[in-house]
Amino acid sequence: MTHYGMLIDVGTCAGCNACTMACKYQNATPHGTYWCKVLSGERGTYPNAVQTVLPMSCQHCSNAPCVRVCPTGASHYDENGNVQVDYGKCIGCRMCMGACPYDARSFNWFDSAEHPYYEGFEQTPYEQMRAAEHPVGVVEKCVMCHGRTEEGKEPACVQTCITKSRWFGDLDDPTSELCKKIEEMGARPLKPELGTKPSVYYAGLVD
Ligand code: SF4
Ligand code: SF4
Questions:
Q1: What are phi and psi of 158, to 5 degrees?
Q2: Is there an atom of ligand 1 within 6 Å of 104 CB?
Q3: What's the fold here for domain 4-203?
Q4: What is the CA(45)–ligand 1 centre distance, in A?
Q5: Is the peptide bond before 155 cis (omega within 30 degrees of 0)?
Q6: Does ATP-binding show up as a keyword for this record (predicted)?
Q7: Worst-scoring range by mean pLDDT, 93-97, 119-123, 161-165, 202-206?
């Protein structure tokens, strides 16, 4: 079976947020909603402090707490082993947001085609059209670019990464470049102790 996953090398990630913008452009997410983002921090003490970056999105857990707690079956696994939300079944209870240990989900409080996010805010006709993809009152998150992968393309964040710090592929195929890179780079998921079994792996993490 296919099981799509991703590898991110934080050692070469430039923290440029090209992936963040590619995701927003691809998925037309509402104002203030980021399915993909880059968290920044620092490690060490002056004069040896360094800046750290951590690209974050849904980890597409194989043992997903969000799927377990969803009372309606809206949160579910797709045919590629990734976690998706069926907006038609979502009742907006936000149980999944509380259960996700990676803070990967957002709630749509407003109709982004109508809500005046700031003074003078006005959507373009194109933005209004795409706003219909994000209904009010539902929870959303990264969809592993399902539409793109169906067409044989990589997720937008992977294709756009300027330092080629992201790989996408089939975790169930040991001969895939993704699996070989995970092995070669000694990559591991975030918070493995929680038993969520993420499909996203990271290389270059420093404890
Ligand atoms: Fe669910 Fe959060 Fe895991 Fe994504 S990262 S599958 S939202 S628990
Ligand atoms: Fe399921 Fe929607 Fe409730 Fe989340 S907010 S648990 S997806 S019904």
A1: -70, -45
A2: yes
A3: Alpha-Beta Plaits (3.30.70)
A4: 33
A5: no
A6: no
A7: 119-123
